[in-house]
Amino acid sequence: MKIVEPKYEILTDISQDGIKELQQIERVARVCYKSEDKITPDGESAKKLVGFLVKQGHEAMLEHSQLSVLFTCDRGVANELVRHRIASFAQESTRYCNYSKEKFGGELTFIWPSYIRGEQYCELNDSEVTIKSSFLEAMTYAEKDYKLMIANGMRPEQARCVLPLCLKTEIVVTANYREWRNIFKLRTPVAAHPQMRELMCPLLMELQKKIPVVFDDIYTYWPADDQTRKGSMVK
Ligand SMILES: Cc1cc2nc3c(=O)[nH]c(=O)nc-3n(C[C@H](O)[C@H](O)[C@H](O)COP(=O)(O)OP(=O)(O)OC[C@H]3O[C@@H](n4cnc5c(N)ncnc54)[C@H](O)[C@@H]3O)c2cc1C
């Protein structure tokens, strides 16, 4: 049994300072206003125009650039991601992946929930020790039963019924910028699930650094330091 931290990887190449991405939107949007003559090669006109589009709510223009992100997360978070109907997905399949095979090290991989403390972050009190061991025990049983069912002739798509929501999955989400804005607005506020926030908040902040203007108006609070984050999320 392996337990790993969630993570994301931006699969789409983003140009230096994100200018090419903005220029793509600018090229398209200027058709509406017939203002192609205002395009400047340094990208300043693109920044200005995209800022204007966002402010005006003319977000349809943002549909002309897209981004793919690979998330390594648990099945619970993945279930929430696939609710975003405008996005496209590719997800690791529990029907076709046989985790008892050597390819997977013959073991299951789970995601460590951000709200369960590990002693690598701090000393645990009694109830935290109990929570942690309950979690580990449940994962141990899930793995044992899954492998036992496979060993007794079940296919992965059948044995998966004993797998828990914190099973690690990989899922690629491809969406245009308009849809990513919608995703960030829904998935970064404190009302969103903590494990969703722990992926979406850093992703949003990284994109705000890499692509100017497009996501700047979406505010998120997220402490940069990982240890602070882990500690602060536990009640
Ligand atoms: C905090 C939180 C709690 C949640 N709790 C639950 C829950 O308890 N149960 C539950 O079932 N879901 C829950 N959800 C999921 C939620 O109901 C949505 O399915 C999910 O957030 C996707 O939102 P969306 O429809 O805006 O996104 P998308 O499906 O990506 O759609 C993007 C946008 O396109 C437009 N759009 C898409 N489809 C249509 C359509 N058919 N008609 C009109 N406009 C459309 C809308 O403007 C929409 O905002 C929760 C979500 C959040 C953020």
UniProtKB/TrEMBL annotation:
This is FAD-dependent thymidylate synthase. InterPro entries: Thymidylate_synthase_ThyX, Thymidylate_synthase_ThyX_sf. It holds the Pfam family Thy1. It comes from Faecalibacterium hattorii. SUPFAM superfamilies: Thymidylate synthase-complementing protein Thy1. GO terms for molecular function: flavin adenine dinucleotide binding; NADPH binding; thymidylate synthase (FAD) activity; thymidylate synthase activity. Gene3D superfamilies: 3.30.1360.170. It is an enzyme of class 2 (transferase). It comes from the Bacteria.
